[in-house]
Amino acid sequence: MCAHCNYQNLLEKAGVEPTANRLQVLAVIGGNDAPLTAAEVFATIGRFHPINRVTVYRILDLLVRHRVLERISSGGRAAHFGLAPNKYHAPHPHFCCSRCGAVICLNPDSLSIDADNLHKTFAGEVDRIEVLVEGICRNCLKQRSNH
Amino acid sequence: MCAHCNYQNLLEKAGVEPTANRLQVLAVIGGNDAPLTAAEVFATIGRFHPINRVTVYRILDLLVRHRVLERISSGGRAAHFGLAPNKYHAPHPHFCCSRCGAVICLNPDSLSIDADNLHKTFAGEVDRIEVLVEGICRNCLKQRSNH
DNA sequence: GATGATTATGCAATATAGTTGCATCAATGA
DNA sequence: TCATTGATGCAACTATATTGCATAATCATC
Lengths: 147, 147
Ligand SMILES: [Mn+2]
Ligand SMILES: [Mn+2]
Ligand SMILES: [Zn+2]
Ligand SMILES: [Zn+2]
Prior knowledge:
The structure is a homodimer.
Chain A: H1 7-14, H2 20-30, E1 36-37, H3 38-46, H4 53-65, E2 69-72, E3 80-83, E4 94-97, E5 103-105, E6 112-114, H5 116-121, E7 125-136, H6 138-145
Parallel strand pairs in A: 4-7
Antiparallel strand pairs in A: 1-3, 2-3, 4-5
The structure holds manganese (II) ion (MN) (2 copies) and zinc ion (ZN) (2 copies).
The site of one zinc ion (ZN) has 7 residues of chain B, from helix 6.
Chain A binds a DNA duplex through residues 17, 19, 21-22, 37-39, 51-55, 57-59, 77-79.
């Protein structure tokens, strides 16, 4: 668990009941250094407490809607989930390995984006800008060079 | 069809046989002003020529591997496909409406990205940087205000 | 042009990820 | 206690994509 995050508090401030299941989901995601899929969250919680797969999906949706979590597109088929940016967690890009599928959080200052033009000219409402870096991860590069 | 693109040529240069089906897929995507899903490509081609759904998926994969097309994450479940950046098509971000799911190409200069830090510090190989802008599109904003 | 090898396509079955409907359980308040 | 509401479970279902294998088309060699 991140030193700055009281998950119970996060949920209450977002206006959702801090049920045991919701706290579990949030703690599993908050305690991991990379975003997780619904299946991974389900499996992790399931090792200690019984929970239904559908409940996990519903909680993930709920927490994304309330901006406690963010849904991260991963290049692959399954969405990944991480803590939404807040006072203590700066928004940051994610890397996705096109060989092994690994998803990794990148440093917030590894990229800088200037979106002034977008905000001036785009006719819709912009809620979020997601950056996905695609390539080959370190591990896969190593393995590849061993051939 | 884009004035600058000879699809037959694009395929040959990429080293893939320019079969009728491949040309169809490429022409449908190249002729549209926003990226399309596999299902949309299939339906569009299917109005005039018989083609199998699986063939469409295989061609999309092949052309993405050969960098003729790019796969665009859409926030939703289905991947979208557009022409890969080349001499005549600058890379550009995409907008995805979280209400209606519409995917729209944004102007290449609506965002500028500085990735120097990433290239200096990231241990893997970076092939592509995808930017996905999420929000509410103009149409959905209008509809919403009509209530 | 016939022959065999290779590549592209079709079709059915299957897999994966996410969603829906409805029943039940738990918490809250009158 | 009872009624109301929100949270969860479970089974069925949907949407999207992939696999295995058969057939058709294309290509290379003679
Ligand atoms: Mn992250
Ligand atoms: Mn585009
Ligand atoms: Zn990898
Ligand atoms: Zn919309």
